[in-house]
Fold each of these.
Amino acid sequence: MNLLTVPLQAQGGADYSFLIMMVAIFAIMYFFMIRPQNKKQKEIANFRKNLEVGQSIVTAGGIYGKIKSIEDNAVIIEIAPSVKIKVDKNSIYADAQAPSAQSK
């Protein structure tokens, strides 16, 4: 019985270091994974709010086109002369003229 109490007493001091390590891991995950993702989502949402007719865009499916009209939750895009498609606003991903979209 005395042999079992010695290892249990030795682990008592390790509780704080384990807690500090878990907090540090969560902080690292937050600053390197969660925060940049939230920032990117806010940029995309702001881009979708400021869509204008005549703007060149790229959909999430990779379709390049020019906005012809904007409805409540949908956008009419011209992808070729006299070829128009209707897509959901949430599927619009980026501005086709932006340098960040061209480098990817």
Amino acid sequence: MYGGMGGGMGNMGAMMKKVQKLQSQMKLMQEELKKRTVEVSAGGGVVKVVMNGDKVVQSLTIAKEAVDPEDVEMLQDLISAAVNECMKKVDEMMTSEMSKLTSGLGLPPGII
């Protein structure tokens, strides 16, 4: 009776080691992804945003033809659209890369 439980505890120990290794790998990957950048443009390229994996805007470029004092709202919309799309792409990049680490574990989505 105790032998069966000991085997189960051994399996638990092995599982804990795998989880610890995975956590370590995930932390390293998160740090690496923070260094990557994504670039998005809006309005046919008149507004460009570059954002790092930590969701910090690295650069914002606005073409001169996008600056119309009579239509500031359109420029604001283009900037908002580009920044929001950049954040979405960063999230997609993070999810995609993290799923590569966890794909063989058979865990439900979103658990890690």
